[in-house]
Amino acid sequence: MGIEIIGIGSYLPEKILTNADLEKLVETSDEWITTRTGIKERRIASEIEATSDLAIKAAEKAISKAKISPDEIDAIIVATVTPDMFFPSTSCLVQKGLKAKNAAAFDISAACSGFIYALSIAKDSIKSGTFKTVLVIGSETMSRVTDWQDRNTCVLLGDAAGAVILRKTDSPSDILSSYLGADGNYSDLLYMPGGGSREPATYKTIDERKHFLKMEGNKLFKIAVKAMADSAQKAIALAGLTCNDINLFIPHQANIRIIEAVAKHLDISMEKVFLNIHKYGNTSSATTPVALEEAIIEGKVKKGDIVVLVAFGGGLTWGSVVIKL
Ligand SMILES: CC(C)(COP(=O)(O)OP(=O)(O)OC[C@H]1O[C@@H](n2cnc3c(N)ncnc32)[C@H](O)[C@@H]1OP(=O)(O)O)[C@@H](O)C(=O)NCCC(=O)NCCS
Distance from the CA of 212 to the center of ligand 1, in angstroms? Predict the structure, then answer.
């Protein structure tokens, strides 16, 4: 028995925010952003779009590609740190939007690693026989938690959603392995302090800008490189493979320099690494499914190829999944 990706879809909001636009908002330059991060532009959700709206659009594309009815979906897992609201879960709002009336629905909170966590859970739930058809979505409106006065973070983030549908199959396709990790000791390197049970929203928390993402980029950089390289190696070994067997690496797109350092650590050529950071920046949990769809559309991978998805994010969390397409 294997697991096949029977449909994949993404949604990128129309509005493009360029580095030149950001030069008008904060003290920065296209040259600084491009050389330090690799990002040229990012997408921003419209005022009427929330995370579930992006997720539904990506999921509708995946359902159409899979040629299934929403009734056939047994479970919907949405990875997000920018839910429409605390509760109900964004996945329940997606279930309603898709009219997927037979699906169980729950959210995963693992920041930028969320999609990898969700994919791993979906794989195990299909292998154990709990579900047969699972819709896994990474959807984020990072622009809603971005401090547009903070040049350290506002140049990095963007909005997007990506969705895949997994189904039990007799074909050789499979999710060969996954490896997940976390270290809560570094929880204060990337977080949003306000709005939760520790600091509920008050005029004071708003004045102190606590409802925006805070990040210590420099410290994260070093941990990200080691955690991503390490988790990719562990997932590849669990699949009984080596780096030489991998046709394409799809890393989380937070910083081009992090990606290059991970590739160097793994001793893989950048030709085998998929990049779209220049177009979208860091879209948190949406990054890897959006990149996987683009890699397939652009012909960078074909049926039978081995692909590794690698992510790292707040928590801290990290993880990798090895897929045979
Ligand atoms: C955020 C990041 C791009 C910053 O790059 P960096 O090379 O580490 O830069 P530093 O933080 O050391 O800052 C260098 C200088 O640039 C300045 N700077 C920061 N943002 C800037 C911007 N947008 N424009 C211009 N200057 C900027 C800093 O203020 C600092 O100035 P100083 O030396 O006068 O204090 C980088 O650290 C990074 O990508 N980190 C990891 C991010 C990540 O993985 N996030 C979460 C994973 S999901």
Answer: 17
Work out the average pLDDT over 180-208: 97
Q: Which residues constitute the domain of residue 241?
A: 176-324
User: Is the CB of 88 inside a 6 Å radius of any atom of ligand 1?
Assistant: no
Other CB atoms closer than 10 Å to residue 32's CB: what's the count?
A: 14
Residue 172 has pLDDT above 80, yes or no: no
For ligand 1, the distance from its centroid to the CA atom of residue 88, given in whole angstroms, is 36
Nearest CA to ligand 1 atom 24: 28
Instruction: Using most ligand atoms within 8 A of CB, pick from 25, 39, 142, 221 the residue to mutate for ligand 1.
Output: 221
Q: Residue 171: what pLDDT?
A: 83
Q: Is the dihedral of CA 33, 150, 312, 253 positive or negative?
A: negative
Mean pLDDT of 269-275: 97
Task: Say yes or no: CB of residue 82 within 6 Å of ligand 1.
Answer: no
Tokens (6 digits) for 270: 């950048």
- Return the closest-CA partner of residue 307 out of 287, 291, 286: 291
Please say which residue of 142, 171, 200 terminates a domain. 171
Tell me the pLDDT of the chain averaged across its residues: 97
In a shared domain, residues 166 and 188: no
Shortest-distance Cα residue to atom 38 of ligand 1:
217
The reply to whether 195 and 257 lie within a common domain is yes
pLDDT of residue 305: 96
**What pLDDT is recorded for position 235?**
97
Q: 317 pLDDT exceeds 80?
A: yes
Cα 268 to Cα 73, 180, 232, 273, distances in angstroms: 37, 21, 12, 8
Q: What is the pLDDT of residue 324?
A: 95
Q: Which residues are catalytic?
A: 112, 252, 282
